[in-house]
Write a structure and sequence with these properties.
Elements lengths: L38 E3 L7 E3 L4 H11 L3 E5 L5 E6 H5 L1 H10 L8 H4 L1 E2 L5 E3 H5 L3 H11 L3 E7 L11 E6 L2 E6 L8 E8 H8 L3 H4 L6 H8 L2
Parallel strand pairs: 2-3, 6-7
Antiparallel strand pairs: 1-10, 3-4, 4-5, 7-10, 8-9
Length: 225
């Protein structure tokens, strides 16, 4: 054993002590709340990822055990190349592939049902900081989106969670992955807005109500307690 390192100084703590934790998202919000109140922030919540070749049912089980409804899809260099949701896996996409390509469900992979990066919609974190929940709802409604991603250039602010280890499925094997350094100057995904999460926090079903609401004020009324 290398004797170059000496033990750290330590002492007992006699006064009351708690622990640090990320800010909790409010259970209920209104359209006037800050947009950040309904954002899944990857500074605090570790994003879950998968690879192109992961079978869809293995990815779905990973979502269930991880408590998420979507996964970022990454390539061999850990760059994000798409997003897949539980809706993609449990919806019409696999059924069409089975009918059109005569594939068994076990042969369908994430790359065949995901939304590729060119089709994903992004907003910049700078805009999110000054936005309200109503702006996010309006964007989701205007684009008929289930997910809206938030991007940020690493040098815009210091992030405390560089390089945290994570695991993901590539094919059928678990592999480690690290988040790129957020001080690198590259653009990275800061977080996302989920219509399902916004629905829960507003107390309305955006996927059904939002298309019928005549105005955002009506939506606010329907979600009021």
């Amino acid at each position: 054993m290398d004797d170059h390192y000496s033990p750290l100084w330590r002492s007992p703590i006699t006064e009351p002590i708690s622990f640090l934790r990320p800010p909790a998202a409010p259970e209920r919000v209104h359209l006037s709340n800050p947009a950040a109140d309904v954002m899944t922030d990857f500074t605090y919540v570790q994003p879950r990822t998968t690879g192109l070749d992961t079978p869809i049912d293995i990815a779905l089980e990973y979502m269930k055990t991880s408590g998420v409804r979507s996964l970022l899809v990454i390539d061999e260099t850990d760059d994000v190349i798409g997003l897949v949701s539980s809706y993609d896996i449990q919806g019409e996409k696999p059924i069409k592939l089975i009918e059109q390509l005569r594939l068994p469900r076990s042969g369908i992979t994430i790359g065949q049902v995901m939304t590729p990066k060119p089709e994903l919609k992004f907003v910049d974190m700078l805009s999110v900081r000054s936005a309200r929940v109503g702006h996010i709802v309006a964007t989701l409604r205007d684009l008929e989106l289930r997910y809206l991603l938030v991007s940020q250039v690493g040098e815009q602010e210091e992030a405390p969670m560089e390089g945290l280890p994570d695991t993901y499925m590539r094919g059928t094997e678990w592999e480690p992955v690290k988040i790129p350094s957020r001080a690198s100057g590259r653009r990275w995904i800061r977080g996302l807005f989920s219509a399902a999460q916004v629905s829960r926090q507003l107390g309305v079903d955006l996927m059904t109500v939002i298309t019928r609401a005549h105005s955002l004020s009506e939506l606010e009324f329907r979600g009021a307690t």
